[in-house]
Amino acid sequence: MNGLQWPLDAQGRRASGAVGQRIVAAALRELDGTAADAVLAERRWRQAYPRHWRALVQAQAARPAGVAASARAGLAAAWRELPFLRDGRPLALADAMRAPRQGLQTLQLSGQGEAAPAPWTVPYQGRPLGGDALARQIDRWERAGICEPGHAEALRDCLAHPEWFDLSDQHLALLGAGSEAGPLAWLARWRARLVAVDLARPATWKRIAGLVAAGNATLTAPVAPGQPLDTAHAGADLLADTPEIAAWLASLGRPLALANLAYLDGERHVRVSLAMDAIGAALCSADARTQLAYMATPTDVFAVPRDVAEDVMQRFAARGLAKRLVQAGARLASGGRGFAPHIEALVDAQDGGRWGLVDALVVEQGPNYALAKRLQQWRALVARDEGRRVAFNVAPSTTTASVVSNPLLAAGFRGARAFGVEAFAPETTNALMAAMWVHQLRTAPRDFAHPLQALVHTANHGGLWRLPYLPRSVLPMAALLGFLRRA
């Protein structure tokens, strides 16, 4: 057993629950000691974690000056808690990152396709949208509350600046390059200088190499020592080769914009997120020009500005009498769990304004998924606090293989349209998120009165955050509708 692992508990098992609690408690302790103690005392972590996530975000919203310290404390706890195993011997992650083994080899690929950057279009409901048609669709998404105005504004900027999409001046590193919802297919057609890291799986690298060959980008990939320099042997393991990947990326001698895209099921998602964090931290230390990029999930807890929160509350208050009566009956039958209001009060952040909490956590996704995404938020907040360029974009819920493999989630997203929520096809999310990264590469970073605003300003949440009801309080109804529609 090698690489990042969970520590052994008192019974000699590698379990994630108590470790996750300690990591979240460490982040909360910088802001609210009582709330931190409640995390450590929680006996039903798997079921009750949403309550503690809300406590963390509420404390951050109320104390903007403490946000960066809280994020640093959470990251430091994760680095302390998870050991890095070398030949079965546990090392502190920081020590392991300072002692990479034999260096990785380098493979170079070049595109053979059309030399000019491909025009940016967005595949949507079976047809590519560009120009005026795409502009009208962006307007519709904004009016319907599918995305926030900052997202729509950025997409309009991209439409107005097609020259931005010649990325021949950009060195973009993708951790988890083969990700289904990632931007590789577009970047490979925009002349980017790509660096790709993914597992050494021939099928994955055949797909990656095909995308590169059909486009006009160049791509650099790692190959294990002693292996032939070809795509059949390309790849490295983010979990087991973390120090070597960081050292190899630094050895390329280029200022990299590093996208953290890898996803693994269950508890491995926390480990791979921490591995990407360690690689990003190492590159930031090696080169001050390093940039970081993240694709966040909307199914989380976020603080949103007052105007968004008041819109959500107004939507709940504006329900007609018939709808109120039906929903009151449903709430009674569900023991108060159904059709719960999404936002009931605002959080006062003094000079940082007033904020609401949108809570789109899906309990079935579990605390490990939520912690993995929280690690990425924390690093984005710390990096911004240090003055680094960070592209942080909330991507809409997307019907990737990992989502549709969960029958409840798949049915819930199918039925969510009845509540004004839209789940996007992977090819649509690919095109939108690729353009959002281009926008943040080409424009100056924005300053915000509250650090948490940087996480939500350009969000495309598919309508989840503007839903008047707590999303998980209507998920069973959406899932039922989804099952009926499939039938």
Structural descriptors:
487 residues; 3-stranded antiparallel β-sheet; alpha/beta; globular; 7-stranded mixed β-sheet
Globally, the shape reads globular
Low-confidence stretches: none
Q: Could you tell me how far the N terminus lies from the C terminus, measured between alpha carbons in angstroms?
A: 45 Å
Structural class: alpha/beta
Helical content class: 40-55%
- CA radius of gyration is 22 Å
- Largest sheet data: 7 strands, mixed
Main sheet: which strands, in order across?
A: 4-9-8-7-10-11-15
Q: How large is the count of helical segments?
A: 19
Overall mean pLDDT score? 94
Number of strands: 15
Strand content range: 5-15%
List the helices and strands and how they pair.
Elements: E1 3-4, H1 17-29, H2 33-41, H3 45-62, H4 67-81, E2 84-86, E3 89-91, H5 93-97, E4 105-110, E5 122-124, E6 127-129, H6 131-143, H7 149-160, E7 171-175, H8 184-187, E8 193-197, H9 202-214, E9 218-223, H10 242-251, E10 257-260, H11 268-286, E11 291-296, E12 301-305, H12 306-317, H13 321-333, E13 347-348, E14 354-359, H14 366-385, E15 390-394, H15 401-404, H16 407-415, H17 426-442, H18 453-456, H19 471-486
Helix pairs in contact: 1-2, 1-3, 1-4, 4-14, 6-7, 7-17, 10-11, 11-14, 16-19
General description of the model:
By secondary structure, the chain is of the alpha/beta class. The chain is built from 19 helices and 15 strands. The longest helix has 20 residues, at 366-385. The radius of gyration is 22 Å and the shape is globular. The N and C termini lie far apart (45 Å).
